[in-house]
From TrEMBL:
This is Plastid lipid-associated protein/fibrillin conserved domain-containing protein. GO terms for cellular component: plastid. InterPro entries: PAP, PAP/fibrillin_dom. Signal peptide: none annotated. Residues 101-261 form the Plastid lipid-associated protein/fibrillin conserved domain. It comes from the Eukaryota. It is found in: Plastid. Its main location: plastid. Pfam families: PAP_fibrillin. Keywords: Plastid, Transit peptide. It comes from Oryza brachyantha (malo sina).
Amino acid sequence: FALLPLSRPVRCHGARLALALPAVRGLGRGARLVAPSARGAKRPLLVLTPARVVVVVAARPRACSGRGATGRWRVGVSSFSFLPSFFAGNKEKEDREKAERLKEEFLAAIKPLDRGADATPEDKERVEKIVQQLEEVNPVKEPLKSDLLNGKWELLYTTSESILQPKRPKFLRPFGTIYQSINTDTLRAQNMETWPYFNQVTANLVPLNSRRVAVKFDYFKIFSLIPIKAPGSGKGELEITYLDEELRASRGDKGNLFILKMVDPTYRVPLS
C-alpha cells in the first residue's frame, strides 16, 4: 500500500473526482477510473486496468473553499490481482486448442514418410515448422519434473539417419515399431527396436537442467539376447521441447528431432 500524489489538483465541489492516471505508477495503458462523487471522497476509487483492479483511497486536503479552490490530494493505492488468472486461463485454453490442431497437422504430414525415412527436404522443412509452433505452446515447462515423461513411447518421426538407415533397402531397415522409454525417478532410459533386429540399448541420464539430460549408454543388446558393454564414446544429450499426455518432442545434441507418442505410462526401464 503506497501514498502517491496526484499529478494535478482536483476541484473540491466537482461532481466527480478527476484523477490523473499517470500519477499511479505501473498501471499501464488501458486503465480507466471509476470514481464516486467528491462528497464521498472517503469511499475508494477504482482504477480498472486490463490486468488488475486498483483501489485508490483519496484523502481530502486540509483546506478547500470557493468555486475554483483547489487542493493537493494524496491517494493510497492498493491492488488485488484476480484478472491475471482469468486471462491466463484463457491463454491456456487457446494454447491447448492450438496444440491439438498442430498435432493433427503433424500426424497428417508424417503419414506417408515412414517415420522420416522417405522424407524429402521439403517434407522435413514442413514438419520442422509444425513442430516449432507446437514447441511454442508447450504446456510442461519443466518436463524432467513431470510424471508425464515416464513410460514407454513409440517413435513416430525422426531426422536421425542412424535410426532410419534411409540408404538401406527397405527390407533391411528396422521396419518394426521403435520404442524409447524413460523413468525420471531412476534416471534410466532405453531404446528398443522390434522386427527384424530387436536391438536394445540402455542408458543412465544426468539432468543438466529441467529440460535437458546428458545420456550415457551402458549396455547394448543384439537380438535382445547378447549384451555388450557400451564404449566410452556412447553418450549424448537430449532436450524435451514439448510434452503432454500423448505426445513428446525431443531434440538431440547433433540436431536431430524425435517425435514420439505415449503407449505405456507404467513401463519400467531395467536398472541394469
